[in-house]
Specification:
Layout: H1 7-24, E1 30-35, E2 41-46, H2 52-60, H3 63-66, H4 73-97, H5 104-122, H6 143-167, H7 174-196
Antiparallel strand pairs: 1-2
Length: 200
Amino acid sequence: MKQTWSWTHVLIVAGTFLGTLHWYDRLPASIPVHWNFRGLIDGYGPRSFIYGIPVLMLLLQTLPALATRGASSSVHAITTGILAFFACLQAVIIAAAMGKNPDVIRLVCAGISLLIMFLGRQMPGLPRNYWVGIRTPWTLTSDYVWQETHRRAEQAMRWGGLAGAALTLTPWPWLGLIAAAGGVTYPVYDSWRISGGAPR
């Protein structure tokens, strides 16, 4: 039976939980939980909501196990990247809750863009599965379409993420999120195109 967890994942999740626990008593009773596209807080929740992201991270550790065709190095890398992103997001939220006024929209858009770039690098090594990757009716029913889609997705996600990261440096950082999203959504369309030329 293949190991479906890693010490890297354990350390990231445990570190996030411990960091949250350390700062918890210093947080106000009500903390920001939502920002509008201008970066202004427009939603608050009880202090206990601060544990939402660490709990989600704990659940995300199951990704390698859910990719039932084997815990590939690509699946582990994807899990590591996502966990690292959420750990950074948790730090930003704690800083905002403590009144440090971080540029949340810019930081989140930049983080997502860099994450998309990182995930793109892992796409070619993904085994076909129902949980991780570009999952469309065409990729899930054909090894050829899956492999070609994920090979080409690497480039789309790399350039989408790079453009997104660059756009976060402008006065309109939310444009970076649109560019990064394009890098993720194009492979869905591409999988349909590839299926038309798949060997029968």
